[in-house]
Amino acid sequence: MPGYTFKRLATGLVSLLVLVTVTFFLVRLIPGSPFQNGGVSGRVVEAVEEEYGLNEALFDQYLTYMGNLVQGDLGVSYQEPGTTVAEIIGRTWPVTVSLGLIALLVAVVLGTGLGILRAVSKRRIVREGIAAGGMLLAGIPNFAAAILLLFVFSVKLGWFPSAGLLTPAHYVLPVLSLALYPTAVISRLMGNTLAVEMGKQYVLFARAKGLGRGRIIFTHALKNAWIPVLNYVGPASAFLLTGSFVVESIYTIPGLGREFVSSITNRDYTLILGLTVFMGTVVIAVNLATDLICAWMDPGMRRSYSDK
Amino acid sequence: MRRKRFTALVLAAAVFCMTAMSGCAQGQGDKEAKKEITVAINSETGTLDPAGSIALTYLAYSVSALDELLTYDENGEIEYRAAESYEVNEDSALWTFHLREDALWSDGTPVTAADFLNTIRRALDPASGSGYAVYLFPIKNAEAIYNGEMSMDSLGVETPDDHTLIFRLEEPCVYFLDLLRLPVYTPSCEKYADSVDSGWDKNPQTSLSNGPFALEEYVPDQYFVLKKNEAYWNKDAVKLDRITYRFFDDTQAMAAAYETGEVDVATSLPSTVMELYRGKDDLLVTDQIATRYIYFNLNVKPFDDVRVREAFNLAIDREELCRIVGADTEPSYNLVAKYMTDKNTGERFVDGADQPFEENVERARELLAEAGYPNGEGFPALTYKYPTLEMDSDTAQVIKEQLKKNLNIDIELKAQELQANYSSRYAGDFDLCRMNWTADFADPYTYLSMLLSNSTYNCSGIQDAEYDAIVEASGREQDPGVRSDLLHQAEQRAVGEQFYIIPLYAMKSVNLVSPEITGLRQVPASGALEYRYADIG
Question: Contact B426/A45, CB-based, under 8 Å?
Fold first, then answer.
């Protein structure tokens, strides 16, 4: 395990380095300048770019950036002079995380519950209803769901506010928009694998032993059925924790996703890079954690790792 | 055991949802007791420092929080704000302003001439990133200082005492008073406003204001709150206690927030809102002092030929274009914004002269034939670059269709992300490029000066000494009537004779305003809404 963990960490670091490098140069390939907008004259743009060292050779700028990055310095935002990129991340990430964690919780609880129901219910209408509902929800992209929920529950019915994250009520619609798709996927994964597990011999044996249905599901079958779900939940949570661009924009939520979109629109180079580094780190770390947890849960997998 | 845990989780989720539901009963405060309004504005960009890199946030903030020296009201009359009088010498090159002695910053410190100079000096440092620094260049030596060629001591601004501010200009400038509403001419308190990146501007303790409202709270990405400035010299005229500005990324989300009552005012909404709210008191349609037009690249053949440029202008049916693009547009045949007022007459400036040209498809075909492209034959494949905004995309489709139908010319369409489009335009990397200009100040000069040979906004490669001479003369001309003639003459030459641009339309701004709010005004220069003297009920 330590060897495997080390190898995975090293791969993670290399991926991060590649990510930063590629992003650095890609961002500069986009036409435009952080200091240009419709009304600013070219003369001013040039003077300001010079002031910020943006007229130096690109590779030198890259070296400077990497040098600072190694020391943990992500630089200052061009759009908000005086504010460091780290401060912006520090202010937006908690928002995104609180939203993402709640959505994840809702998705895991609801998805697992519905999946179990789908696999073991004796009523055909329940099984097929959940299957069909899951299919439908998995097919609705989250921006469509977000707009639909906003329109119905906020504009028409007036049950929930439409913008910001000021009170708990503000969380309901964005959480639902974020949770719908993972809920559908988890319930399908759970339903399918649990149904397969329930047909296996150890379940038959447990039943022959006289164990109750609930006991069989919750103590035996569920543990095995969880592995594919966990494999999905890992990467999915990385997505939820780095923020949804669309949902954050629609509900005007001051999180990472919205900041990322506006940083690109504004060509705020340091902010784009800082957010990329941060999100990259989160995604890589969450994937690593998922792999390690899966390995820990499945002795077979654990063995195959230590063989390598 | 496990089942219990599962039940507990479900219960926890249920409890969470209940609290969430109950939360929505709150939020709607008692607006009558305290007069407060919430205004939805476009997403946060830029600083609140008048010397810094300014965008929407500052513009929203400053109309409520800062007093410029003086401004013009909707009738073109001077409204004194931080100044109480001014003098100008004979040739309009030396301007002296006498500041109000009773004017105080929101912490009680007197407003002095040095506070005005503070903004100007800081803006003349390129590191500040002020896009408006160019508007300081009429001041003696300002441009040289900006370029690092002269020292700050040589700047033509003097403050002989705390309440006198003198501007010495490079050359006469009759529209100088119009410039005074620009951020770089607004004061920033010397005590705190030291640099654009020290963060003074968003900290309520140090972000002082000399106008009707002062910053109370600033929450990045979410909102900022202005409260009534009790130290304001004219505070009796201010009725509201508080204005909250909330940031929105999306105009649909803004309209939804208005619908749910989360905001009392939503501005710059899509034109579809006009249909939804037709006949209701909430709908407020205002004029934008802006023109949408197309730049030709004169360095690209055959746009060097005036006949081709004229043919394009005559072949476009602007009435049809506006019908398709949206009810918030109106055809325009001028460079100067259709809704801009001529201060001398009180009428719209563009109505002070004949329309520069008339659309005429027959004539357009003849001109194209004369230029060597009968029925569009042999016309090169040229590209129209425009930003991916809905309005511009619709416009591009219509123009392509009309040019094909009327002149048998195929133009290629290339939609670009907004910033990319700006870049192409500034680099002159286009055949035809979409342009939009909102007036910086309430004088036609803001438009006409863009086409000067040495203007940085002249992206078309126009080199017209005769035009330059007329426009520059208008900057010096003392007699308002003669000056007005010069401006009209310049516009006629650029738009009606040389056809340097293709004017398309003027725009309306679609706003939703709670019918309870009274006393809203419009800033004459830009058309933006102003809440200084607003009231509830």
Answer: yes
| Closest residue to A31, CB basis, from B19, B27, B423 | B423
CATH number, domain with residue B41: 3.40.190.10
At B338, list the tokens: 């259709």
Is the confidence metric ipTM above 0.85 for this complex?
no
B194 within 8 A of B181, measured Cβ to Cβ: no
Q: Round to whole Å and give the CA distance between B56 and B42.
A: 7
B122/chain A closest Cα distance in angstroms? 13
Asked if B306 contacts B464 with a C-beta cutoff of 8 angstroms, the reply is no
Nearest CA in chain B to A153: B260
Provide, for chain B, the percentages of residues in helix, strand and coil under a 3-state DSSP scheme, each rounded to the nearest 5: 35, 20, 45
- Condensed to tens digits (0 to 9), the pLDDT of residues B393-441 reads 999 999 999 999 999 999 999 999 888 888 888 888 999 999 998 888 8
Tell me which chain A residues have a C-beta less than 8 angstroms from the C-beta of B248: 163, 252
Same domain assignment for residues B255 and B299: no
Classify residue B297: in a domain, yes or no.
yes
How many structural domains does chain B have?
Answer: 3
Residue of A nearest to B45 (CA): A79
Same domain, B143 and B253: no
| Residue B32 structural domain | 9-65+199-286+511-536
Q: Which two tokens stand for residue A216?
A: 């069989």
Query: Which residues of chain A lie closer than 8 angstroms to B457, CB-CB?
Result: 41
pLDDT in tens, B19-48: 444 444 344 444 457 899 999 998 777 789
Give contacts of A154 with chain B, Cβ < 8 Å.
256, 260
Regarding whether B216 and B179 lie in a shared domain, the answer is no
Cβ contact, residue pair A81, B456, below 8 Å: no
CA separation, residue B144 to residues A43, A191, B124, B149, B531 (Å)? 13, 74, 10, 5, 38
Do both B228 and B370 map to the same domain? no
